[in-house]
Amino acid sequence: MLKTVGILTAALIGVATSLTIAAPASAAPNLRVHSVQYSPNGLDDGSGTLYNREWLQLVNRSNSAVNLQGYTVHNSGGRTYRFGDVVIPGNGGRVWLRSGAGDDTARTVYWNNSGFVWKVDGDKAFLRNRKGQALHTCSWTYVENRDWVRCPVSP
Q1: Where are the extended beta strands (E) located within the chain?
Q2: CA–CA separation, 110 vs 56, rounded Å?
Q3: Domain residues of the chain, as ranges?
């Protein structure tokens, strides 16, 4: 009896180990934050146009288009943008989320903020699906003479 239990235990450990080894350690997300322009150059003339030069870009590396309806982007301070009926094409399709006001198009949507969203001295962008599950994050710290960041592929 003990010999049978020992053999079964060894077999189960072997199966569990092989399943663990077969799974990828960290798969890159198909839909992710590609880059963030967090410190736009130019003079703030009070018109709000400078806010639209601050943006976050999403990229879709899957083969299929994704409807972003209900997906959210937020910063480390909790300021949140919820996407409407926006479709991001597959195969490298991109959508820009601009901080200021404007009319949404197929490739550019507007947060309609009356100020900047992203902190220059360091911030974190979170992308979540409509269920609130984290898909990707991108963070940065202050670097002199840098005003944008390309986000790493790993989550």
Answers
A1: 31-37, 55-60, 66-67, 72-74, 80-82, 87-88, 93-98, 108-110, 122-128, 134-141, 148-150
A2: 10
A3: 28-150
CATH code, 28-150: 2.60.40.1260
- Report the greatest alpha carbon distance in the chain: 83
pLDDT digits (tens, 9 = 90+) for 6-58: 443 444 444 343 333 333 334 568 999 999 999 988 777 777 789 999 999 99
Residues 23 and 5: their CA atoms lie apart, in Å, by 27
Q: Which pTM value belongs to this model?
A: 0.80
Spatial CB neighbours of 153, under 8 Å, sequence gap ≥ 6: 28, 29, 32
The neighbour count for residue 37, using CB atoms within 10 Å, is: 18
Q: How many CB atoms lie within 10 A of CB 23?
A: 8
DSSP string, 35-77: EEE-S--S---SSSGGGGG-EEEEEE-SSS-EE-TT-EEE-TT
